[in-house]
Every structure is written in structure tokens, then in C-alpha cells.
Amino acid sequence: MTRAPLIVVLALVAAGSLFIALLFGTFPISPLQVFDSIFLPTPGIVDDVIWKLRLPRVLAAFACGGLLATSGVLLQVLLRNPLADPYILGISGGTALGALTAVLLGAGVAGSNLAALAGALGAIAIVFGLSFRAGDWNLHRLLLTGVVLSAGFTALISLLLTLAPQAQLRGMLFWLMGDLSHADASGGAWFVLTLVVLVFTLKSRSLNALALGALKARALGVAVGGLQSAIYFGAAVATVAAVLLGGSIGFVGIMVPHALRLAGVNDHRWLLPASALVGGSFVALADTFARTVWAPQQLPVGVFTALLGVPVLLILLSRRP
Predict the structure, then answer these.
(1) What is the DSSP string of 72-129?
(2) Dihedral in degrees, nearest 10, Cα atoms 19, 22, 25, 30
(3) Which fold has domain 4-319?
């Protein structure tokens, strides 16, 4: 049965979430002004608010959500573990450790991003080096290595927070809970999201086979080792792009794929694009709550992804026989 109508509906929902995110904020803007600014832009304060402040942040939030949800789908296939999410392999921990170390040392935005990227690449190399042996993956070792690395990075991050001056502590905590207030250039994240979704949607039949188990996938003619490597690096790149852009936004990568599977979407040909759309819409709406509920004070978006996502997933679970 085709799921194309579902993708169309989710695309409309995504467009609606972007519109809502552009509409709400501390500066009042009417729906008609949003439409005029998008389709007939004219110089003025409304256009400046939408094009220079809200739209860059909304696009960054959508890209982060799409990347995290897509990474969650891929890792759940790779590990055949329903609890797998983008943060389970320690990559986000390495990224956070690098970024927060740079902040503590007084580095600027560029220096923090480079340090975060270095931390992510270090974590990726450690996990890959310990888990991929003799042309094949040891998934138990992969999962265990990721859990151990995550625990180690968490301890080091806690140490950094303990040593951080009071003036820097608030910003560091915000980043750890998801902070999109400084996210403006999201073109790279959108490129990664489009590429990962496109590549693995084309490999959806192989993903469906691998989800049944490595032995069954091999029997169906799938090159399991190469596919697992591609999944690992695809999920790693998606996670790094999301964390570099918006910090550690939790719960999206585990909640969105499960919600769609509970709704009956299991074929990865539809699950991957659907996850990107739902994840992006979800984070865009959560970020809208984060910057408007307690306005003018902004709250971490990661708090709202959990507060909004937990009830939704529990309701879906309660409806399953």
C-alpha cells in the first residue's frame, strides 16, 4: 500500500509548522503580514523581523529536528534496538565536550565549532576503530563502546560545568539542553539532511532487509558490512550537523521514528522522509514554545521536545494492542 498521501499530508503539516513559527514571537505579526512578507516582501520592520530573525532560526530548528529523527531511524536499523537514538554512540558527547572546552577557554564561535567538530571526529574514530574488525561490525561492541564513551564524556562535561565561571555557566547549560538562539546559517545542515534522506531512501529495500537481521539480509543478497558502515557514518554525520547547529536537543531521535512506526509506517522508503518532516516540524514548534511561553526570556528547546513528545508517545503506546 502506498504511503505517498501520508508524505503529502506531512509536507503540509511541515509548512504549517513553519508558518506558525514565523507568526508567533515577542513582536506581534498577523497572518496576513507573514504571507505578504513571504510572497511580496517590502522593506520595513516586519520584513526585518521575519527574514533576519525568525526565518533563519525556524529553518535551523527544522533542520535540527529532521537530522535527529533521520539519525534515529538509521541507528535503530543498525543496532536493531528500539532504544537507539542519535546520542547513544557518544558522538554528541564528544561534540559537546569539544564545544564546551573551547567556550571555557574563551574561544569564539568559529573556535568552538572547530573544537566541537574535532570532538565529534574523535568519538567517531574511537567507536569505528573498536567496533569494525576484519571487514565486519560487532554490534554489541558498537553499542557498548558508545555507552561507555557517553558515560565518560558526561563525566568530563560535568567537571567542566563545575569549573566554569558563573558568567559562562548559564550559556553552557543552555547549549546542553538545546539552544537555537544563535543558529542562523543552516545551509550546511540542510544539505546534510537532504543528502542523507535521499541516499538512504534509495537504499530503503536494503534497510528493510537489514531490519530483519544480518543473516536474513545476507540471504537476500545485501552487502551487510558495507551497508552497516554507510548507516553508521550517515547517522554520525547527521548527528554532528544537528549538534553543531542547535546543541543537544534530546528525545527527537527516539520519539519520532517510534511514533511513525506505531502509526503504521514501517517501510523505510516512507519512514525516512516522514521522519525528517515530522522531526523538523516537531522541533520548529517546540522552539516556538521555547521562545514565546516565557517571553521575553527564552527557554531551552530540549525541555519542550521532552515535555511535548512524552505525552504524544505515551498516547500512541496506549492505543496499541
Answers:
(1) HHHHHHHHT-TT--TTTTSHHHHHHHHHHHHHHTT--HHHHHHHHHHHHHHHHHHHHH
(2) -70
(3) ABC transporter involved in vitamin B12 uptake, BtuC (1.10.3470)
The number of CA neighbours under 13 Å toward the Cβ of 71 is 34
- Residue found under cell 559562562: 168
Q: Which residues pair with 133 in a beta bridge?
A: 136
pLDDT digits (tens, 9 = 90+) for 4-26: 788 999 999 999 999 999 999 88
Residues 241, 309, 244, CA angle at the centre, nearest 5°? 15
Torsion of CA 197, 201, 202, 204, to 10 degrees: 150
Largest CA distance in the chain: 63
The pLDDT tens digits of the residues spanning 259-279 come to 898 888 989 999 999 999 999
- DSSP for 171-219 reads HHHHHHT---TT----HHHHHHHHHHHHHHHHTHHHHHHHHT-HHHHHH
Tally the residues of the chain.
Answer: 321
Domain residue ranges of the chain, discontinuous segments joined by +: 4-319
Beta-carbon count within 10 A of 39 CB: 7
32-48 mean pLDDT: 88
Q: For the ranges 75-79, 88-92, 106-110, 300-304, which has the lowest average pLDDT?
A: 106-110
How deeply is 221 buried, as exposed, middle or buried, from its count of CB atoms within 10 A (0-12, 13-18, 19+)? exposed
Beta pairing partners, 132: 137
pLDDT band for 237, please (50, 70, 90 cuts).
Answer: very high
Residues 6+ apart with CB under 8 A from 121: 94
Judged against a pLDDT cut of 60, whether residue 47 lies above it is answered with yes
Query: Among residues 194, 164, 18, which one has the least CA distance to residue 101?
Result: 164
